[in-house]
């Protein structure tokens, strides 16, 4: 019987692949038999991840990139196609936030740093748009390919403080739906674009916002958990089932959706 969820031998690219969530995805995909290409600007972390995957018997390649530099991404594409001859899946996992694009409890919108806001939008939105433009071209030529964007809970429901990040991720969700129609209508049903919207996971980027130096939860963390029916933060591994579903032929007729993975946060009010 055919395993609809099989991703063996698929060439899967991950931007931002050496982060907490990205590295977990990369390890899983390689463990399932995919040929994983980790694209990241952190050369040390990227090489360590790829070495770890290879030590476990997986196939992986690390390439230094800049998701905001089309020329570098084009060079990455050339190298990937020279090695594997195709690109099956692109996971746009590069993203992040910065302090100036947030509004603290003692601040207002008038304290927002526009330069920081712009940088966050660039990283999360343009850092999705530009890799999509570069790597989708190869998918169009082979008439099949899958793009998985990483949106956020903050795109579904505006959250306090993270105004820049929320606006950028909302744009990523919209871009996901736009591209789902754009590629399918103009290049055929073999092209699909979907997104995952993780809820609250503790990563290096939000650790200081959610935990105190002693490891206890901050007030904001307790508020989040009070609004999450599961009553806990997510574990990176809990993204993997949805990821594999979207990357595999099990979701062959799924196009243009944004899947919340949030322990019920988006469904709950009081």
3D architecture notes:
The chain has a single domain, classed as Rossmann fold, CATH 3.40.50. By secondary structure, it is an alpha/beta fold. The chain contains nine helices and seven strands; from the N terminus they run βαβαβαβαβααβαααβ. It has a seven-stranded parallel beta sheet with strand order 3-2-1-4-5-6-7, with helices on both faces. Helices cover about 45% and strands about 15% of the residues. β1, α1 and β2 form a beta-alpha-beta unit.
| Gross geometry | globular
What is the annotated CATH architecture?
3-Layer(aba) Sandwich
| Spans of at least 5 consecutive residues with low confidence | none
Number of domains: 1
Treating each run of at least 4 consecutive H or I residues as one helix, how many helices?
A: 9
List the helices and strands and how they pair.
Layout: E1 11-15, H1 20-31, E2 35-40, H2 43-55, E3 59-64, H3 70-84, E4 89-92, H4 114-142, E5 145-150, H5 153-156, H6 163-187, E6 191-198, H7 207-210, H8 219-226, H9 240-247, E7 258-261
Parallel strand pairs: 1-2, 1-4, 2-3, 4-5, 5-6, 6-7
Helix pairs in contact: 3-4, 4-6
What labels describe this entry?
9 helices, globular, Rossmann fold, about 270 residues, alpha/beta, 7 strands, 7-stranded parallel β-sheet, about 45% helix, single chain
